[in-house]
């Protein structure tokens, strides 16, 4: 029983890490994009070059990569219907990251909508 509990806790922590890395990746990509767009050269080629050279965009893509590898590890060990509702937490974490680190406003409608999406992910997964 203890082995199963520890494995479940370990997988739960890996799921949380993967979802958290995804939210952090969104934050890094937003910061990197905002900085790169502000210094872009003329034309789409210059803008793409600025984006490709942005350190925060590279960090964001790296975070996505690590998060995806963790997610693959999790999916190999638990049913998709168990793991996927945790993706709804990513909506909440991303909203909070935008509010705290980017000073984005949190209206009642934005909070309620984000919570409805996350709740919907759980309800859909539980209905299977």
Automatic annotation (TrEMBL):
Keywords: Cell membrane, Membrane, Transmembrane, Transmembrane helix. It is a multi-pass membrane protein. GO terms for molecular function: transmembrane transporter activity. The chain crosses the membrane at residues 54-75, 82-102, 108-125. InterPro entries: EmrE-like, Small_drug/metabolite_transptr. GO terms for cellular component: plasma membrane. It is found in: Cell membrane. Its main location: membrane. This is Multidrug transporter EmrE-like cation transporter. It comes from Stakelama sediminis.
